[in-house]
Amino acid sequence: MTINILVIDDEKEIADLIELYLKNEGFNVFTFYDAKEALTCIQTKKIDFAILDVMMPDIDGFEICRRIREYYHFPVIMLTAKDEEIDKITGLTLGADDYITKPFRPLELIARVKAQIRRFTRYNQQEALQNDMIIDFSGLILDQNTRKCMLHEKQLSLTPTEFSILWFLCINRGRVVSSEELFQKVWGEKYFSSNNTVMVHIRHLREKMNDSAENPKFIKTVWGVGYTIEK
Question: How far is Cα 98 from Cα 76, in angstroms, rounded to an integer?
Answer without folding.
Answer: 7
